[in-house]
């Protein structure tokens, strides 16, 4: 496996030093930078594009969740926290792991095994442009008190709600505070299709397609949401899906 490019964002110098000591026993980790607050962390992450982020939750001014909200694409994230699990129970996360301070060597090694497994499964055969995300890219969504790290390929449907976008995945449908056009620019064209002015679908989640009025199509998604494909887009959809 290639070296795991890693960043630490942690306000405590002592905690950063403890992490660096643990990292010394794992030559596969390439620590490329550290930051002591959220703004520095965001700048560092955007500059070096790490594979792995060790992220403190509780920091002054802005917390770890706010950092994730500021990122366009979220690396594999392992939280570090001085608080027990209740501190993040509201975070319905796909974050890979969280480590309770002080972090012991055995628990750190277990987290690293999870990281390596995740990176191996993340290897993909797609051609990726500099602009677009991939099916395995993650985005962070915060809606009210709940937060999610969502894999792009797990999103079945996106739809306009006012100036924002509702994102459907699994049994969740939180609001992402970006316009659908902004989101569309980043989505991998391999999976996603603009069904109409209001909705974008992931073609992997289509359960059923039926002819509809005036040359349109009606799709039923795996979550039983029904999507009407506009007449113009129906021609494109048939061509794309070879219908």
UniProtKB/TrEMBL annotation:
InterPro entries: CheY-like_superfamily (IPR011006), LytR-like (IPR046947), LytTR_DNA-bd_dom (IPR007492), Sig_transdc_resp-reg_receiver (IPR001789). Residues 139-243 form the HTH LytTR-type domain. Keywords: Phosphoprotein. The keyword Transmembrane does not apply. Residues 5-116 form the Response regulatory domain. The modification 4-aspartylphosphate is found at residue 56. PANTHER family: STAGE 0 SPORULATION PROTEIN A HOMOLOG (PTHR37299:SF1), TRANSCRIPTIONAL REGULATOR-RELATED (PTHR37299). This is Response regulator transcription factor.
């Amino acid at each position: 496996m290639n070296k795991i490019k890693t960043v630490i964002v942690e306000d405590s110098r002592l905690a950063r030093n403890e992490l660096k000591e643990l990292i010394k026993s794992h030559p596969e980790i390439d620590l490329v930078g550290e930051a002591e607050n959220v703004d520095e962390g965001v700048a560092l992450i955007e500059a070096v594009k790490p594979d792995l982020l060790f992220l403190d939750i509780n920091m002054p001014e802005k917390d770890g969740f706010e950092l994730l909200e500021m990122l366009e694409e979220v690396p594999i994230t392992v939280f570090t926290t001085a608080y027990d699990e209740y501190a993040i129970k509201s975070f319905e996360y796909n974050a890979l792991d969280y480590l309770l301070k002080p972090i012991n060597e055995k628990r750190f090694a277990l987290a690293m095994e999870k990281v390596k497994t995740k990176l191996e499964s993340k290897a993909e055969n797609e051609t990726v442009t500099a602009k677009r995300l991939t099916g395995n890219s993650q985005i962070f969504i915060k809606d009210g008190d709940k937060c999610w790290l969502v894999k792009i390929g797990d999103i079945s449907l996106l739809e306009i709600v006012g100036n924002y976008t509702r994102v459907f995945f699994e049994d969740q449908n939180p609001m992402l505070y970006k316009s659908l056009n902004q989101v569309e620019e980043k989505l991998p064209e391999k999976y996603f299709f603009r069904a109409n002015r209001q909705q974008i679908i992931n073609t992997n989640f289509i359960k059923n397609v039926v002819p509809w009025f005036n040359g349109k199509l009606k799709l039923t998604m795996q979550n039983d949401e029904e999507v009407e494909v506009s007449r113009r887009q129906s021609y494109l959809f048939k061509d794309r899906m070879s219908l």
